[in-house]
Design brief:
Elements (H helix, E strand, L loop, with lengths): L12 H10 L14 E2 L17 E7 L6 H11 L2 E8 L1 H10 L8 E6 L3 H6 L3 E2 L1 E2 L19 E13 H6 L20 E4 L5 H14 L3 H10 L3 E3 L2 H8 L9 E5 L15 E18 L5 H11 L2 H11 L2 E2 L7 H6 L11 H20 L1
Parallel strand pairs: 1-6, 2-3, 2-4, 8-9, 8-10
Antiparallel strand pairs: 4-11, 5-11, 7-10, 7-11, 7-12
Helix pairs in contact: 6-7, 7-12
Length: about 375
Amino acid sequence: MRLRARKSIYLPAALAGLLALGACTSPAGEEPGGEAETAAPEGEEAGGENGEAGGVVRVVSHDSFNLEEELFAQFTETTGYELEFSAPGDAGALVNQLILTKDSPLGDVVYGIDNSFAARAIDAEILEDYAPAELPGEAADYLIDGGNALTPIDLGDVCLNVDHEWFDENDLPEPEGFDDLLNADYEGLTVLTNPAQSSPGLAFLLATISNFDGDWVNYWDDLLANDVKIVDGWSDAYYTDFTANGGSRPIALSYSTSPAFTLDDDGDSTTGSLLDTCFRQVEYAGVLAGAENPEGARAFVDFLLSEDVQGEIAESLYMYPVAPVDLPEDWVAHAPLAEKPHQLDPADIEANLDDWLRTWQDDVIG
């Protein structure tokens, strides 16, 4: 099975400033903040009595949102709401477009804002508070500042992947963490992605900032000195440069779930992920401020937390569900989440991301 790319294009600082200006006013008639809406009483659909509200729910998402059509049909049958979808781009472009259009929202509900951009979305006041009646599993641990603007739906780890077969054939020990990539034995063996162009690339940059703090620029300088290759997107790194797919570099940036898709005839994975290098990504859904159908939007957030959808997330979105559902056997065997992933407070990311990317571009890449 071929994995789908998850990319993210980060807009230049000049446009980021324009977005900040656009975020200064709330939609007409809307008061920022306030008490969170809550889920409908038990036994009553959020869309109305007996789920027969009718109307349309406009769903805005990133361009990797792909659930089974049967699930969407089930939502319509249960709630009475038809669904319309739009995908303005990757996670970064999604937030940027929602901010630019906040006075005339693109939809009623959003899915796919991740923790790299969550604080930006909240600060821009493009979301209406909504608290589902009950969050499954450990979802509450991923709420932003304990608030209700965004509901956690799924999560995953971006990590370095290694080609077991290449290292065996070349009689070279596999690296284990960030520092190993600077070893002369691994010169010219690693491919990463541009943090201004790809979601995994941004996650890896944030992981190095988390790990090295104020010394992260020096670490990147040393990476480049050891002939690390940087490409625009995940597909290029994983499917073109990674030796597991015919390339020339046996260390590639991907996901902790990727090894579940590189199995040999015996059911063993030919690749593995370096869990000490992982950055935790969390994806959220939320009701858009000024939504034409806020009741339908809340029903859709509840739907994403339902057992049926949570049980499908691994197979369709290649992410871990926030609910404790059964996972594919290959995931259990070969796609563990990191026990101690690198993480940064979304507020810190929002406050510093422009500067971090500018520094990476000017001081590291030149």
